[in-house]
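Students often ask why we bother encoding 3D structure as a string. The short answer is that it lets us treat folding as translation between two languages. Here is a chain of 211 residues written in the first language.
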Amino acid sequence: MKKVLILGATGQIAIWAIQMLANEPELTQTLFVRDTKKLPISLPTNATIIQGDVLNLEQLKQAVQGQDIVYANLAGELEAQTQNIIVAMHAAGVQRIILINSLGIYDEVKGKFGEWNHQEIGTYLGPYRKAADLLEASDLDYSILRAAWLMDEDEIDYETTDRDKDFKGTVVSRKSVAALVVKIIQTPSFASRDNLGVNKPNTDANRPYFM
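And here it is in the second language, the structure alphabet:
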């Protein structure tokens, strides 16, 4: 039985992933949320939900214990949260982690879109970069997913770029990012110690279509 801990389980990408994993009989999901009342879907039969805060190290250590994979879908104090996750995973002897991150943390977004992206979110990217740096410096088996601007289309259509490559496209659906998360959960050797940009193919533009 594979055990997955989902941190930030009320996030929109996480909700897609939870539903995709709901019918996997050989997998259990532990949904870690700050407010159990905010889960916008019915609890799947293979899931349990616990209330806690990733910034509370003792709560996090208890949640990580006995898990096989940690999937972090977080925002806010991302550097401090990532530090706690690393400590908790070491304490529990858990190695595999998937972290949702953002495009632009390496100035890998080029051209007019890169200029626009930096203007819009550049001041917010410091903690995302620090979170990625912390994972890459650790001995954990990580997958860092740097998502393009997120959209709500009900589609799975994505491509990836390596850490040292220019970012492609401008947008990607939340469902697509969730599908990539699920692929990694199903095949943990996939994207092992990889840092990937994630975008919808053929969406190059000066800015996202909805902006």
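Translate back mentally: The chain has a mean pLDDT of 97. Keep this in mind for the problem set.
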